[in-house]
Write a structure and sequence with these properties.
Blueprint lengths: L3 H7 L17 H19 L9 H10 L3 H7 L8 H13 L3 H20 L8 H13 L1 H6 L6 H20 L3 H17 L9 H13 L2 H22 L3 H6 L2 H4 L3 H7 L5 H7 L19 H12 L6 H6 L5 H18 L9 H19 L16 H13 L3 H24 L6 H11 L5 E5 L3 H7 L10 E3 L12 H4 E2 L6 E2 L1 H18 L4 E5 L8 H17 L7 E3 L10 E6 L2
Parallel strand pairs: 1-2, 1-5
Antiparallel strand pairs: 3-4, 5-7, 6-7
Helix pairs in contact: 1-2, 2-6, 2-7, 3-5, 3-24, 6-7, 6-9, 7-21, 9-10, 9-12, 10-12, 11-12, 11-20, 19-21, 19-22, 20-21, 23-24, 26-27
């Protein structure tokens, strides 16, 4: 620590310092500080990385990525995403295996690399202290850590988006082929990672327009715009080979599940919630990010556990007396104070304020406004690409504070993070899928046919381990096998809202599913119904469960049906029903 303090003392606080100054070189002292922040980012992303069960979307990524490369491309025709993550994960698993740690470590490495990009982003308006504060904020942002521990494409997309924004800033400030060529490559790679990268495409043109209004230099604006158009045309050409698949993908069906959430949401509050969860902690996180769950309902539930004597750990007893609104207010106040200083006019011709604010705004509001036509906005997911800009604004603002205020900001940020991270460790580490997969393995002989209801297939398949290829997995509906992360709600269920009523064709599909399972198992074979346990899930899950359970009742009528129910080995409490096909 004695080596770090002089570095912190000597690092220039002004966020508008120029990179030509000697103080802004990546000297040994800066490298020590940056290295410690990168090490912190890596530590937090690998800490508890295997603590939680692999869930549906992660298991689906595993299923796709374990296939040969050509099969990955074929599978993605019925998915809703580009191929780069699956290809990288395919080779990553070849090197490191497919256990939870190995599966998620690719995202942890990429998320840590994104923090490094911020720390080594040299530009006149982003001084050394600003970069250190921004890197620290990015390293401890709970939402960034969450996606850095998830076996999904979001950490990859965030890495290439951050890198492309670095080159975009250079194109806008300096121009030149040596800047717009890497911008083209990184933009294409971002699009090959996740389509959400397209939300930020307009940013450069917005900044050019603002800069033109600011300095009225038409010739400079035209030169910059020409370079930017060239970069985007090149990026489009690099992305063109994927366009036939992109237009073939059923994107609208893949986001149908967001419709009820969008309709029920308090829409004016959604952008505010998204902004709050971009911070270093203390926010109210969406319910789907379960282990980050905190807020009044979570706190009251924890207090009830403590009062009833079911919760005895010291950490919940420390956290729950704190009213959840207190850290939320502190979080928003800290961010607002930093932003006010960041938005002050600084030195340098480049309008970095428009660049950073536009970056955050596009990440938030493009999917938000698009959702009025086709729901796709879900707080805590698609606005993820705005987190680096949020951290950069925070860094620029705090770097302009007096030294004592900066130290206080670091301390408050660390406390807010610790508050949120404490709730992460209080969340139950295990669900039922590991136990259920073990039971399934015990009761399923080789060649058995597990019929997995809706969302049960991917996680059961993953946790079956080496036995997965001995079984003949089926899904209900059967086309869910080709896109296990979602279903075509309008095809199978009566809209609108919760899709709680099955269509007739779903009832026919249920009967056809059992007939195919019986044929696959053969006389004397075993079929295992894997259903959602304990009546969990939304209305659409219950509608599908009712449809297939009704058809199962007809196929397993005692004495006259085609299958015999085996209560001795079934575990209905775990959603596992064993049936033997009659000889």
């Amino acid at each position: 620590m004695s080596e770090i303090q002089p570095a912190v003392n000597e690092i220039q606080a002004d966020g508008s310092s120029t990179s030509s100054k000697p103080e802004d070189r990546f000297d040994k002292r800066y490298l020590v500080c940056a290295g410690l922040i990168i090490a912190l980012a890596a530590f937090l992303r690998f800490l508890l990385i295997a603590h939680y069960e692999v869930w549906l979307d992660e298991a689906y990524c595993f299923i796709v990525a374990r296939k040969p490369i050509l099969d990955i491309f074929r599978d993605l025709r019925s998915d809703n995403g580009p191929p780069l993550y699956y290809i990288l994960l395919h080779y990553w698993m070849m090197l490191f295996g497919d256990g939870p740690t190995a599966l998620r470590s690719l995202s942890a490495v990429l998320s840590t690399a994104s923090v490094a990009v911020i720390l080594f982003w040299r530009t006149p308006w982003f001084g050394r202290m600003a970069r250190l504060v921004a890197g620290f904020a990015f390293a401890i942002t709970p939402l960034a850590i969450y996606y850095g521990q998830e076996a999904r494409m979001y950490a990859l997309a965030l890495f290439f988006v951050t890198l492309s924004m670095v080159f975009l800033e250079r194109v806008l400030r300096l121009g030149g082929v040596r800047n717009w060529a890497p911008l083209a490559v990184t933009t294409a790679l971002a699009l090959y990672s996740s389509y959400i990268a397209i939300f930020l495409i307009p940013l450069g043109y917005i900044v050019i327009a603002i800069r033109y209004l600011y300095d009225n230099d038409q010739a400079a604006a035209q030169r910059t715009a020409t370079g930017l158009v060239a970069a985007h045309v090149a990026a489009a050409l690099l992305f063109a080979p994927w366009l036939p698949t992109f237009f073939r993908q059923p994107s609208a069906a893949a986001t149908q599940w967001m419709g009820p959430y969008w309709q029920a949401a308090n829409k004016p509050m959604l952008p505010l919630q998204s902004l709050s969860i971009m911070t270093v902690g203390g926010a109210y996180y969406p319910e789907f990010i379960r282990q980050l769950g905190q807020g009044p309902r979570r706190t009251e539930a924890m207090r009830e556990e403590i009062r009833a004597g079911r919760e005895t750990r010291i950490l919940p007893r420390i956290l729950t007396p704190v009213p959840p609104v207190v850290p939320l207010i502190i979080t928003l106040a800290l961010a607002a104070a930093a932003f006010l200083f960041a938005l002050r006019r600084g030195e340098g011709a480049f309008p970095y304020r428009a660049f950073l604010i536009g970056w955050v705004a596009l990440a938030l509001f493009v999917p938000f406004f698009f959702s009025y036509f086709r729901p796709m906005y879900f707080a805590g997911r698609y606005e993820l690409t705005g987190i680096p800009a949020f951290a950069a604004i925070f860094g620029v603002g705090v770097s302009r504070w007096p030294k004592g205020a900066r130290v206080a900001a670091f301390a408050v940020a660390a406390l807010l993070f610790a508050y949120t991270w404490g709730y992460v460790q209080c969340y139950p580490s295990a669900g039922m899928n590991i136990e259920r997969a073990k039971i399934l393995s015990d009761i399923a002989p080789k060649g058995a046919v597990p019929v997995c209801e809706v969302f049960e297939y991917a996680t059961m398949y993953y946790y079956m381990g080496e036995r997965r290829d001995e079984l003949q997995f089926m899904t209900f509906p059967r086309d869910t096998y080709h896109h296990a992360a979602w279903i075509d709600y309008d095809k199978w269920l009566v809209p609108p809202q919760e899709w709680t009523e099955p269509r007739n064709q779903l009832l026919r599909e249920a009967g056809d599913t059992w007939q195919e399972a019986i044929r696959k198992a053969g006389p004397g074979g075993r079929v295992i119904f894997v259903r959602t346990p304990n009546d969990n899930g939304g209305g659409w899950i219950k509608a599908m469960d009712g449809a297939i359970a009704s058809a199962l009742g007809e196929a397993a009528v005692p004495d006259t049906g085609q299958m015999d129910y085996e209560p001795a080995i079934s575990r209905p409490d775990k959603g596992l029903l064993a049936l033997d096909v009659k000889r």
